[in-house]
Design brief:
Length: 300
């Protein structure tokens, strides 16, 4: 499945060759696909390891960032996070850096794995509170820690307008785009956040939240790790049921303006995901559609 025009293809044979070249002691371990996101393709290696291979050169920079910061953040967090164990270099058949992490057992958050959604929302809020409370350790919003979701909504207005237009031209979203664009526009008129810059995971959607026995056990995929304003961090709670969303908001004490800006981020990222991935990654576009339907249900 190719998602980007500049994507580098990879398959199990390529991964085997990289392992033979760089970690021959792992080359004979069982290898199986372990999912694919918009930025990385993943393979489970043996029982204890996960291979992550960026889809594009632009996504490859996140690997060094994870290797540098995750060992510093992990001891300060109450849930498991990825542990990098190998920094792969370009090799035969694959021209980009790649990485190997420890495998973390768990299942994606969803109706089959979570029964107490209010408790789950509180768990997620606890993780976010811990992450946002960690000192920046000299990090600043610069270089690979400067990502758009930690900035102001207004900076995104041109591409959000473009993606609304793309969705309208598609004509088959099944969404009330006028109401969604109204929510986006109203949030643009709000005062900007005055919160201090904090650590941001950047993509706390359910596929990055691993569950054990119904509770949040681990948070994975820190490729979007950045420093910035916290508003967009809250946007993925519209991927969760209303009771989880309310428990999350209550636990963090988010005020009305922060909530409205977070919801606007949910709209922006959802519309963008539909516009970009509707043909190449329909399942992901479906996740974005579900998020926007949750936004609409909340304001109905």
């Amino acid at each position: 499945m190719t998602l980007h025009d500049d994507e580098v293809p990879v398959d199990g044979a390529v991964v085997r060759e990289l392992l033979r070249e760089q970690r021959p002691e792992w080359a004979g371990l069982p290898l199986a696909p372990a999912g694919a996101g918009t930025e990385n393709t993943m393979y489970r290696l043996g029982d204890d390891l996960l291979v992550r291979l960026p889809r594009t050169a632009g996504a490859a920079g996140s690997l060094a960032k994870e290797r540098h910061w995750l060992p510093r953040l992990a001891p300060l967090l109450g849930r498991a996070v990825p542990e990098p164990v190998h920094a792969g270099t370009p090799g035969r058949g694959y021209p980009l850096p790649w990485s190997v992490h420890r495998w973390i057992d768990g299942e994606e958050a969803g109706p089959a794995t979570v029964a107490d959604w209010a408790g789950f929302g509180a768990d997620l809020a606890a993780f976010v509170g811990e992450l946002h409370g960690i000192g920046l350790m000299g990090a600043t919003r610069a270089g690979d820690l400067d990502w758009y979701r930690g900035g102001d909504l207004g900076a995104c207005a041109p591409w959000v307008a473009r993606d609304f237009a793309t969705c309208r031209a598609a004509g088959d979203t099944g969404l009330d785009l006028d109401t969604l664009e109204g929510l986006w526009g109203a949030a643009l008129e709000l005062p900007g956040s005055r919160a201090p810059h904090v650590w941001l995971h950047g993509d706390l959607k359910p596929t990055n939240l691993l569950v054990r026995e119904g509770r949040l056990h681990a948070v994975i995929d820190f490729g979007a790790l950045s420093v910035g304003l916290p508003d967009a961090e809250h946007s993925t709670v519209w991927d969760l049921p209303p009771e989880a969303r309310q428990a999350y908001r209550d636990a963090l004490g988010l005020d009305g303006a922060t909530w409205d800006r977070a919801r606007a981020w949910a709209v922006a990222v959802g519309v963008s995901g539909i516009a970009y991935y509707r043909h190449t990654f329909p399942a992901f576009a479906g996740e974005c559609t579900a998020r926007l339907r949750a936004v609409l249900a909340e304001v109905a």
